Amino acid sequence: MAEQHTRGQQQQQQQMQVHPTEAIKSLLPQKGPSKTQVLAVVTLFPVGGALLCLAGLTLVGTLIGLAVATPVFLLFSPVLVPAALTIGLAVTGFLTSGAFGITALSSLSWMINYMRRMRGPVEEQEHAKRRVQETAGHMGQRTGQKMQETAART
C-alpha cells in the first residue's frame, strides 16, 4: 500500500515537472510580432534614446548651473531670502484673491440663475395671472348663478 502511494506521488511530480524550454515557449506568443509592432519598436527606440540623452544633458546643465550659482546665493542670501519670501507671499496673496473673486462671481451667478428659474419668464407670469383672473371670474359667475338658482327654489 505504501509502495503504491509513493509511486503515485512520483508520477505526479514527474508530470508537474516541465522542461525549461517548454515553460519559456508557453510564455511566448505562438506567432511573431506584426509589421506594425516591429515598425513601432524601430521608430520609438531612437526617439526614446534621443529623449534620454536630452534628459541627461539637462541634468548635467542643471548641476553645473547649481555649482556655479551656489556661491552667489551664499553671498547674497541676506538680500535674496527676504526678497523671495516677499515675492512668494505677494504671489500667494494675488492667487488667493483671484480664487476668492472667482468663487464670489460663480456664487453670485448661481444665485441669479436660481432666482430666475424660480420666478420664470415675465410672459409666463402674465399668462398665469390672466388664467387665474379668468378662472376666478368664471367661478364668481357660477357661484352667482348657483345662488340665484338656490334662491329661486326656496
Describe the structure.
This protein is an all-alpha fold. It contains four helices and no strands. The longest helix has 85 residues, at 35-119. The chain starts with a helix and ends with a helix. Residues 123-133 have a biased composition (Basic and acidic residues). The chain crosses the membrane at residues 38-67, 79-112.
Short description:
The chain has 154 residues and is mainly α. It is 91% helix and 0% strand.
Structural features:
154 residues, mainly alpha, 4 helices, flat
Mean pLDDT: 81
Ends: how far apart? 117 Å
Computed CA radius of gyration, to the nearest angstrom: 43 Å
Largest sheet: none
The H/E string reads HHHH
How many helical elements? 4
Measured as a percent range, the helix fraction is over 70%
Percent strand equals under 5%
| Number of separate strands | 0
Overall, the morphology is: flat
The SS-based structural class is mainly alpha
- Note poorly predicted spans: none
